[in-house]
């Protein structure tokens, strides 16, 4: 009656603390998770956790299943990974390029975990600030690109990771901090601080300003997210950053943020690989570990429709 899906569901519920957070970690909608839990309890004929408790409390039956999950899931994951190595070989190369400046915080833990499990895979990491990564991927110079700007190509597979909201960071005392949402025309008198990449690779230009024919009064470049936030906080300009990258600075009350337009701007982050490599065991395992890391650590991200 129990299967590994149920074990993972209850583990996510315990670790997340709420149905909302558990659903996010499992890449499910809250309604889908609630239905799954109800179905499991009906099959078992017993309640597994107490509704409307904060923090979430499990029944004795729920705790029994969690104890089982803590024993079985690590062993199962270890065995599955070893079987993949035996089936597909455990050596290879994974040279990565990152278009997303803010991705280092979550990508490094994923790489460290991956390295522990695949020591024979040669790993290298670089930014793509000074070269075009997708042509380099097609040529075979690199093996994986983290990007929010997919360019369809017959040789490339884009693996969706998650959706995130691009937000405008402003100083706490800035007049735009009192707005419900930002409109393109609001930036005509602003200095826009951004990363030193072509504006075609920046969400705020491609998805917000350029379609409306709007230009900011001035622009300023910096490679460091922290520097960008400090410049915003001191009133030197405004900046567009992912919601999850801004969250630590919002928690510290360094800056405020507002959505771009009433519906917001919601890009999707992808991991791009060559089609010939997408089914290799270590590439698939890297996808899995990257997703687990993202949904465990990044606030505000959501699953891609049809994924998970």
Summarize the structure.
Residues 2-59 form the HTH lysR-type domain. With 308 residues, this protein is an alpha/beta fold.
Describe the structure in your own words.
It is a single chain. With 308 residues, the chain is of the alpha/beta class. The protein has three domains: 4-85, Winged helix-like DNA-binding domain superfamily/Winged helix DNA-binding domain (Arc Repressor Mutant, subunit A), CATH 1.10.10.10; 91-162 and 267-297, Periplasmic binding protein-like II (D-Maltodextrin-Binding Protein, domain 2, 3-Layer(aba) Sandwich); 166-259, 3-Layer(aba) Sandwich (D-Maltodextrin-Binding Protein, domain 2), CATH 3.40.190. Helices cover 41% and strands 19% of the residues. The chain has ten helices and twelve strands. The protein has helices at residues 4-16, 19-25, 30-44, 60-88, 104-117, 133-139, 203-209, 225-233, 243-251, 281-297, and strands at residues 49-50, 57-58, 92-98, 121-127, 144-147, 156-163, 166-170, 191-194, 218-221, 238-242, 256-259, 268-274. The strands form three sheets. Strands 4-3-5-12-6 form a five-stranded mixed β-sheet, sandwiched between helices. Helix 1 crosses helix 4 and helix 2 (19-25) crosses helix 3 (30-44). The radius of gyration is 22 Å and the shape is globular. The chain starts with a helix and ends in an 11-residue tail after the last helix. The model has no long low-confidence stretch (mean pLDDT 87).
């Amino acid at each position: 009656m129990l299967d590994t899906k149920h074990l993972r569901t209850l583990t996510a519920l315990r670790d997340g603390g709420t149905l909302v957070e558990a659903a996010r970690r499992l890449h499910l909608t809250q309604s889908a998770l609630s239905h799954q839990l109800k179905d499991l309890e009906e099959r078992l004929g017993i309640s597994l956790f107490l509704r409307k408790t904060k923090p979430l409390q499990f029944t004795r039956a729920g705790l029994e299943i969690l104890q089982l999950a803590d024993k079985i899931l690590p062993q199962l994951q270890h065995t599955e990974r070893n079987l993949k190595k035996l089936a597909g070989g455990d050596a290879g190369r994974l040279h990565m390029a990152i278009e997303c400046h803010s991705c280092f915080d979550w990508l490094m833990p994923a790489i460290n975990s991956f390295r522990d499990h695949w020591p024979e895979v040669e790993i290298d990491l670089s930014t793509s600030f000074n070269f075009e990564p997708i042509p380099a991927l097609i040529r075979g110079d690199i093996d994986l690109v983290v990007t929010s700007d997919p360019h369809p190509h017959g040789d490339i597979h884009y693996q969706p990771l998650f959706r995130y909201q691009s937000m405008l960071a402003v100083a706490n005392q800035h007049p735009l901090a009192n707005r419900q949402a930002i409109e393109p025309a609001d930036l005509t008198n602003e200095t826009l601080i951004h990363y030193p990449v072509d504006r075609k690779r920046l969400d705020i230009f491609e998805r917000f300003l350029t379609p409306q024919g709007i230009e900011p009064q001035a622009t300023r470049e910096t490679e460091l997210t922290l520097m960008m936030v400090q410049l915003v906080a001191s009133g030197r300009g405004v900046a567009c950053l992912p919601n999850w990258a801004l969250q630590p600075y919002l928690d510290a009350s360094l800056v405020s943020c507002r959505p771009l337009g009433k519906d917001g701007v919601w890009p999707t982050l992808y991991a791009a690989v060559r089609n010939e490599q997408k089914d290799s065991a270590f590439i698939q395992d890297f996808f899995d570990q990257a997703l687990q890391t993202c949904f465990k650590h990044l606030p505000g991200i959501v699953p891609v429709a049809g994924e998970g």
